[in-house]
Amino acid sequence: MSSNTPRQPIRDLRFFLTVPHSCSYLEGREATTLFLDPQQSPGVGVYDALTLMGFRRSGHHLYRPHCEGCNACVSVRIPVNDFSPSRTQRKLMHRNADLSEHVRPAAFDAEHYSLYAHYIRTRHSDGDMYPPSYEQYRTFLTLDQDYAKLLELRLGDRLLAVSAFDQLEHGLSAIYTFFDPASQFERRSLGTYAVLSLVERARHLGLPHVYLGYWIQECRKMSYKQNFRPLERLDGRQWRRLILD
């Protein structure tokens, strides 16, 4: 994204609220989502600005939770320059030193989809992404924009993981990671390693943050995010250090 192009004011954008629906993370709760009008293509810098305000991307959509009476979803990011891997994470980096990394545009790839479908069927057969389909994959993880990227992790020629991320002006935004669920690769903790790879990539690019999306303290599925320390949370309009026990 070029900083020389005039920026579109946030106040000129249109947003819509969804009707209340079942929360995907907290049982018995209702959720409402605030979306940027899908008919309105955000100008240069708008995505960057909305990310600083807690928005995320899914396919062509930019969104954030907007639930009445609930603030459980907390936007979190890793401050790259302050991040220091834990002992466990250092071991993990050493364990995966034999993997090669390749960054590609976020275009459809049959090999990627095959791994994605296997991952969803094996790990998330009880979730709202099951059963997987070509159309679901395309609308979720492919996008014809320069900032949208796919990070491949390979062991020789074998594809082990794909991490979708966006390269913004002030950081990398982790969108989604899927990986080979075979038991022989469990010790590699490929999901965690993908985040560590993005941190190192951001450091190499001179970008200050890696955005991890939303963290919910009560949600076990999101507990891995608090293992990256220090971690910052969006508190209103300010990003502050998240204090964890």
Protein described:
With 245 residues, this protein is α+β, with helices and mostly antiparallel strands. It has two domains: 15-73, no CATH class; 77-241, Gcn5-related N-acetyltransferase (GNAT) (Aminopeptidase, 3-Layer(aba) Sandwich). 22% of the residues lie in helices and 30% in strands. It has five helices and 14 strands. It has helices at residues 46-52, 87-95, 110-123, 134-141, 190-205; strands at residues 15-17, 21-22, 30-31, 33-36, 56-58, 61-65, 74-79, 100-105, 148-155, 158-168, 171-179, 209-215, 232-235, 238-241. An eight-stranded mixed sheet has the order 8-9-10-11-12-7-13-14. It has a four-stranded antiparallel sheet with strand order 1-4-6-5. A hairpin with a 7-residue loop joins strand 2 (21-22) and strand 3 (30-31). The longest helix has 16 residues, at 190-205. It starts with 14 loop residues before the first strand and ends with a strand. 27% of the residues are buried.
Key descriptive features of the protein:
245 residues; alpha+beta; Aminopeptidase; 2 domains; four-stranded antiparallel sheet; disordered N terminus
